[in-house]
From TrEMBL:
The chain crosses the membrane at residues 162-181, 193-211, 260-279. It comes from the Eukaryota. It comes from Lichtheimia corymbifera JMRC:FSU:9682. Pathway: Lipid metabolism; fatty acid biosynthesis. This is very-long-chain enoyl-CoA reductase. One of its GO terms (molecular function) is very-long-chain enoyl-CoA reductase activity. Gene3D superfamilies: Phosphatidylinositol 3-kinase Catalytic Subunit, Chain A, domain 1 (3.10.20.90). Belongs to the steroid 5-alpha reductase family.
Length: 303
């Protein structure tokens, strides 16, 4: 069959092109179209391409042209997404930043703050909370997460890393590990109930977050983009309990440290996760007609 590919960039000199594809519309997949484009222009590997119909609706790589109502002789649109980088690599870079930054501020405090002091119990506990959180993130990135999209634009690495390296890295580390919270300072005093209660709730939230990530992993067979309705721990109340538990974990850090820097990061992170949760919640409800109607996006019984 023949298929015309036009560029969404009106200044393109490479498009439109006509592809002569082997097979009929009910046999040829969108991925095969991407591969045919790559043969003509090697730099446009499939993950760098976004193909849409003339109404700018994205075409799923796994579907055949017939399933998308694209017939012989039709025209589709091409967009170059730019150089790509793997999601797994991006996550490792993002979470690796705080794992380097926090020890620098914690162990080299004399050189950073210009004075020697002993860290308070609160500072030490928060330090290990942050380190264990991001170590868990790295573990999940390598062994748990299955990504529906293999890559993202390379330029996004800097934006995504900035969130973690600056807000949860330098911002948290500088203000929480400083001499104003040192041992003996009134601002660092915490009762045993406050301290150990915080540790218990934080550990529960982190473990719960891991459990929900494993649930999501088990919904998607390896090497596929398949989506299913998640059920089980946390999912009976909200569509994205992983975000709910993460928010609880960072709220504990904020309450324990009482630092405005922790609250700032918590506010920004929670706001971003809520935006993602609402979008995912809407996709679930649109894609699955039998999706539970009593679920909220991220906050049980609220939103």
């Amino acid at each position: 069959m023949k298929l015309t590919v036009a560029s969404r960039n009106p200044k393109s000199t490479k498009f439109p092109i006509t592809l002569d594809l082997e097979g009929s519309a009910d046999k040829v997949t969108v991925l095969q179209v991407c591969q045919a484009i790559e043969k003509k222009f090697p730099k446009y590997y499939p993950d760098r391409q976004r193909l849409t119909d003339m109404d700018k609706k994205p075409l799923d790589h796994d579907k055949t042209l017939a399933e998308l109502n694209i017939a012989d002789g039709a025209t589709i649109q091409f967009k170059d997404l730019g150089p790509q980088i793997g999601w797994r690599t991006v996550f490792l870079i993002e979470y690796g930043g705080p794992l380097v930054i926090h020890p620098i501020f914690y162990y080299l405090s004399k050189h950073i703050y210009g004075d020697a002091f002993q860290h308070s119990t609160m500072q030490t506990v928060v330090f290990y909370m942050c380190m264990l959180h991001f170590l868990k993130r790295e573990f999940e990135t390598i062994f748990v997460h299955r990504f529906s999209h293999g890559t993202m634009p390379f330029r996004n690495v800097f934006k995504n890393s900035g969130h973690y390296w600056i807000l949860s890295g330098v911002n948290l580390a500088y203000w929480i590990y400083g001499p104003w919270y040192a041992a003996g300072k009134a601002a660092a005093e915490r009762s045993d109930v406050w301290l150990y209660g915080s540790i218990a709730v934080w550990a529960w939230a982190e473990l719960s977050n891991l459990i929900t990530h494993i649930t999501l992993r088990n919904l998607r067979p390896a090497g596929t983009r398949q989506r299913n309705i998640p059920y089980g721990y946390g999912f009976d109340l909200v569509s994205c309990p992983n975000y709910t538990f993460e928010t609880i974990g960072w709220t504990v850090v904020s309450l324990l440290s009482t630092s405005w820097s922790a609250w700032l990061f918590n506010f920004v992170a929670t706001g971003q996760m809520y935006i993602w949760a609402v979008a995912k919640h809407k996709r679930y409800r649109k894609e699955f007609k039998d999706y539970p109607r009593n679920r909220k996006a991220m906050f049980p019984f609220i939103a």
